[in-house]
Design brief:
Layout (H helix, E strand, L loop, with lengths): L6 H6 L11 H39 L3 H26 L4 H25 L4 H29 L5 H29 L2 H19 L16 H16 L2 H29 L5 H24 L6 H8 L5 H7 L4 H29 L5 H13 L2 H30 L7 H4 L4
């Protein structure tokens, strides 16, 4: 969901994005900062993909029920709702790079401790939920900080390229991560795999520490109770006054509730009793990442006149992902469906992120991104909890059919002229 805009329009919108500097040293620093962000993203996504497999199957081994998986995954998602807005306010007031490093440190500590407990005993469901909550708090600080840091470090004409490359790096990491996770779970158990995720956060923090912010970067400001509420109000106003933004975010909220939430709970459950079930589910996640890689490559050179409408038209095609699980298809067909659907979502994501970076003023970008993430993810924990209820009410196949129907219905945002007419 995105669109790049020209410098004149950007200035008239009040955005304060840096222009290309003629000084080759400045340009070189921007390229180096971009590479550092890509490296940190690669490590974090690789570790996260390992944990997605390891934590899910570790919980199924511990409790053997989908509700245990849902409770722990929801414990990580809930802090995003509770603290993302505060994280956005903080990220618009202090050094975003330092906030990202602190978030990595918090997440590393929790994941390393969880890995230790799963390896040597003591990993009860309440403990796992508490540590997942801490990781979620780190996510709530990291997400708006990264969204604000990207346009702070690079000229606006390079933002789509960097966003596409970050998607590519994430996809490559996502291909390797689930496979590594499945192998580690099979050979060494879930605890070691989760500890590996903790180490990736450590390495990510070390890499982010090497980034040097330009002189024009926003300066740190004091944070008080009145300032927090004032900043939240301003950010909310910036969010509401863009109809295309509220429509697309509302669409994403339904997608998280009825598609992603049930998919990541019921999908592993579907493969639990199969031979090499963990590896088969890992292969589907890798196909998802491979599709994202292809979508990212395609997005590098896409220049549609109406990028948001183009992306919104691709989004309903992701319906093939849950539909492939509902049907008795060969594994290779399911792999293809996951890859194709993910490619559509990847193009969508690149345009969306670039839209935020180019249409939203830089001094409020972290807050607006936080509102975007809060609304988009607000129903994800409910989706995790809803999955067992769907399973009991309609069965696993119909649960996936519901998700497929929701994906198709999301194409309804194209009825809005604000979405169709947003030009590059």
């Amino acid at each position: 969901m995105s669109s790049a805009v020209g410098n004149t329009r950007l200035a008239s919108a009040g955005s304060v994005l840096p222009e290309i500097a003629p000084d080759p040293r400045v340009a070189g620093r921007a390229r180096w900062n971009g590479l550092l962000l890509l490296a940190a993203s690669f490590l974090s996504v690789t570790g996260g993909a390992v944990t997605t497999v390891a934590l899910t199957f570790g919980l199924l081994e511990l409790k053997g029920q989908a509700d245990a998986v849902g409770m722990v995954l929801a414990s990580r998602a809930v802090p995003l709702i509770l603290f993302l807005l505060l994280g956005g306010v903080i990220a618009d007031r202090i050094d975003r790079r330092l906030l990202m490093i602190a978030a990595d440190g918090l997440r590393a500590t929790a994941q390393l401790l969880l890995g230790y407990l799963m390896l040597f005993g003591g990993a009860t469901i309440p403990v796992m939920m508490s540590l997942a909550f801490i990781v979620g708090m780190g996510d709530a600080l990291f997400v708006p900080s990264q969204s604000g840091l990207v346009p702070e470090l690079l000229p606006q004409c390079q933002l789509q390229q960097l966003n596409a490359r970050m998607g590519l790096v994430s996809s490559v990491a996502g291909i390797a991560g689930p496979v590594i996770g499945g192998i580690l779970v099979k050979l060494a158990g879930s605890g070691l795999a989760i500890a590996v995720d903790g180490l990736t956060f450590v390495l990510s923090a070390l890499i982010l520490a090497q980034i040097r912010r330009p002189a024009a970067a926003h300066q740190s400001q004091s944070i008080g109770r009145d300032a927090i509420w004032t900043d939240l109000k301003l950010g909310f106003q910036e969010f509401l006054r863009r109809r295309w933004l509220t429509l697309m975010v509302g669409q994403a909220a339904l997608f998280h509730l009825l598609v992603l939430g049930p998919l990541f709970i019921l999908g592993p459950l579907m493969f639990k009793g199969a031979a090499d079930g963990a590896l088969r589910w890992s292969e589907l996640l890798s196909a998802w990442a491979a599709g994202g890689l292809c979508g990212g490559v395609a997005a590098l050179n896409m220049k549609p006149r109406y990028p948001l409408a183009y992306a919104a038209a691709l989004f309903p095609l992701s319906a093939v992902i849950p539909a492939s699980l509902a049907l008795p298809l060969p594994h290779v067909v399911r792999l293809s469906a996951f890859g194709f659907g993910s490619a559509c979502l990847a193009v969508f994501a690149v345009f969306w992120t670039t839209t935020l970076h180019t249409k939203i003023p830089s001094d409020v970008i972290s807050r607006v991104s936080a509102f975007d993430a809060v609304v988009s993810l607000s129903l994800l924990p409910a989706g995790y909890v809803l999955a067992p209820a769907l399973l009991a009410a309609v069965g696993i196949n119909d649960s996936f059919w519901i998700g497929s129907a929701v994906c198709l219905a999301c194409g309804g945002v194209l009825l809005s002229r604000d979405v169709r007419a947003l030009q590059s």
